[in-house]
Amino acid sequence: MSEQGINTEADIINNIKKPEFFPVSEGKLISLYILSFGLYGIYWFYKNWRLQQPKMDKNIMPIMRGIFSIFFTHSLFRIIDKSAEHLDKQHKFNPNSLATLFVGAIIVSNILDRLSLSSGAFINISSNTVVITSVIIFLLSTYPMVKVQATVNRINDDLLGYLNHKYSIWNYALMAIGISMWILLAMGLAAESMGLVLE
Q: Under a CB-based contact definition with an 8 Å cutoff, are residues 105 and 145 in contact?
């Protein structure tokens, strides 16, 4: 075998360009985001802003932009949209509409969560109904992220998100914690529906 043949795989790896935005497969993003009750979204925003930091003239504090993502969603989506100018029309998105949908879903879901804990916040509406409505609205916030990630993967020349499609031990730990929370939520809903929760 020639030396050129031996180095082929290493050359391919070295020629992979550094991703412009955070690479992750859509399936992995959906599962981690939903199972972690949105905590993975904080990491997703942080990683995207961290990749953008070298292009900025100032310190944008990626960690803070991840934690307080609702205040920076519109700007990040606009940056991604601008980088997608070379893509076909069907692979682009409306940054303002998707960002507004994401932020609105997160805010409304959080408000409903807090109101469900306040006795008497709603008249003739069970807290179960409020909680379920909150969960449905939270799930709606998944759509904007997945839509944007599909475009990001095309910008990164990584259509299927192959650069980050495997689950790490930390991913599994996060999912285990999230699944426990989902089980507790389901048990709480079931207990209240059976009248086992004291008012």
A: no
